[in-house]
Specification:
Blueprint lengths: L2 H13 L4 H20 L2 H4 L2 H5 L4 E10 L5 E12 L5 E7 L5 H17 L5 E7 L8 H15 L8 E4 L6 H15 L19 H18 L9 E4 L4 H12 L3 E7 L2 E4 L6 H13 L5 H7 L2 E4 L10 E3 L9 H9 L4 E3 L8 H9 L3 E3 L1 H4 L2 H14 L6 H25 L6 H19 L4
Parallel strand pairs: 3-4, 3-5, 6-7, 6-10, 10-11, 11-12
Antiparallel strand pairs: 1-2, 2-4, 7-8, 8-9
Bound molecules: NADPH dihydro-nicotinamide-adenine-dinucleotide phosphate (NDP).
NADPH dihydro-nicotinamide-adenine-dinucleotide phosphate binds next to helix 9.
Length: about 450
């Protein structure tokens, strides 16, 4: 790293102790934007790195609620408003027992650059709670969401901060959160995205992150005159992103042979068809069951506790959570012939894994580029809400597709300009960073 970059990274580690995921995300970005500081010293003069690694605001609050058996429960709520240089704060809410400040800060930091890449006017934020919706009744989830929003409502608004879903936050949770915000404020504004169609949601928003990650893989393959037809693909996770990644791969003629959850993965060598995927959607979204049941239903292998990366395939779509591919797993993937990785989840590859992919010239789409389709379509949902309009499926999907093509182009061109064509980590970080950094300079020191 250059002196400046190294110095700021050390300060970040010093000032934000016990936040390893945040350090990791900062390191990944800072390492790859180093050449920008050599070319454009103004960024150092304006102390952009010191400012961009410090959230504009962090809100931490108590979320008390009562479980069905009458016991008082207390969770922690967090909202990190990271950067508003290019638009109102925007980023999802995650409900998962692993949630802590460091994880939300890593996600908010990443979100800033991702939102910049979409070309839409959206700043970066993230939030969530250590609440675990798994095993809770609908009434418990509702009471939790109402309590969470009873505090959060003061800090969000359609032109201020617009949260969305993430792990553990789907249409059900967004509905309860929106209902409570509206009750408290007496306003009907696009304060959340990922809403159901009946009250302002957008077609294709549920599908957008998964579809977008597949569109990104398609663009990467196009640079090698190749496509997804006939390719064996690994998908991890079995939630929102995994489901619609699978659907789009199947549409484009690829074969998805794995899905997983935090307990293990299934291997279906014949491929997951549309019919089998319909079973997964019902299993996960309605019955809220475990992926193990897929193996029982269709008579395929279930690997408890394992990860899909040991199965030979040409393409991988990690779509569950952060750090789900380490250096050894990346080597295994490459040794088994994998040459395309498109990250649907946020930061699913460790820094060691990314190094393996780059050294082996894998077509590697980092999350801030490859999974930006979700937030981009959230932006399209807001555009429809603000104009009192709703667009048909074709229009939203076309816009999403165009945005993913443009993100790929921006990342590819930046990688070329900085001498490493096809290094999308470098390209996405530089392209995302420069827009936000320039906007910060134009707006003075704040
Ligand atoms: P869901 O809650 O719908 O699904 C998450 C899936 O990942 C589940 O199968 C879950 O299994 C698994 N998972 C979660 N945590 C872990 C863990 N610690 N270890 C192993 N498996 C785990 O979330 P999404 O599909 O929405 O999100 C998946 C990823 O995509 C996240 O990284 C998220 O940040 C990212 N993302 C999502 C976007 C969206 O629009 N939804 C947008 C951009 C990024 P289990 O059921 O056992 O917990």
């Amino acid at each position: 790293m250059s002196d400046y970059v190294e110095r700021v990274y050390e300060q970040v580690v010093e000032k934000n102790q016990a936040q390893p995921e945040f350090h990791q995300a900062v390191k990944e970005v800072l390492d790859s934007i180093k050449p920008v500081f050599e070319k454009e010293p103004k960024f150092e003069r304006h102390k952009i790195l010191e400012r961009i690694t410090e959230p504009e605001r962090v809100i931490i609050f108590r979320v008390p609620w009562v479980s069905d058996n009458g016991e008082i429960q207390v969770n922690r709520g967090i909202r990190v408003q990271f950067n508003s240089a290019i638009g109102a704060y925007k980023g999802g809410l995650r409900f998962h027992p692993s949630v802590n400040l460091g994880i939300i800060k890593f996600l908010g930091f990443e979100q800033t650059f991702k939102n910049s890449l979409t070309g839409l006017s959206m700043g970066g934020a993230k939030g969530g709670s250590d609440f675990d919706p798994k095993g809770k009744s609908d009434n418990e989830v509702m009471r939790f969401c109402q309590s969470f929003m009873t505090e959060l409502y003061r800090y969000i608004g359609g032109r201020m901060d617009v949260p969305a879903g993430d792990i553990g936050v789907g249409a059900r949770e967004i509905g309860y959160l929106f209902g409570q915000w509206k009750k408290i404020t007496q306003r009907f504004e696009p304060v959340l995205t990922g809403k159901s169609l009946e009250y302002g949601g957008s077609l294709v928003r549920p599908e957008a992150t998964g579809y977008g990650s597949v569109y990104f893989a398609k663009e990467m393959l196009k640079t090698k005159n190749d496509d997804l037809k006939g390719k064996t693909c690994l998908v991890s996770g079995s939630g929102n992103v995994a489901q619609y990644t699978t659907e789009k791969v199947v549409d484009l003629g690829g074969k998805v042979v794995t899905l997983s959850d935090s307990n293990g993965y299934i291997h279906d060598p014949d491929g997951i068809t549309r019919e089998k995927l319909a079973y997964v959607l019902e299993l996960k979204n309605v019955r809220r069951g475990r992926i193990k049941e897929y193996a029982e239903e269709f008579g395929v292998e279930y690997h408890p506790g394992g990860q899909p990366w040991e199965i030979p395939a040409e393409v991988a779509f990690p779509s569950a959570t952060q750090n789900e591919i380490d250096g050894d797993e990346a080597k295994l993937l490459v040794d088994n012939g994998c040459f395309v990785v498109s990250e649907g989840a946020n930061m699913p590859s460790t820094i060691e894994a990314i190094d393996v992919f780059l050294e082996n010239k894998v077509l590697f789409g980092p999350s801030k580029a490859a999974n930006a389709g979700g937030v981009a379509t959230s932006g399209l949902e807001m555009a429809q809400n603000f104009s009192f309009d709703s667009w048909n499926r074709e229009k939203v999907d076309q816009r999403l597709h165009r945005i993913m093509i443009s993100i790929h182009k921006m990342a590819y061109e930046a990688s070329k300009e900085y001498g490493e064509p096809g290094n999308y980590v470098l390209g996405a970080n530089i392209a995302g960073f420069k827009k936000v950094a320039n906007a910060m300079i134009f707006q003075g020191h704040w």
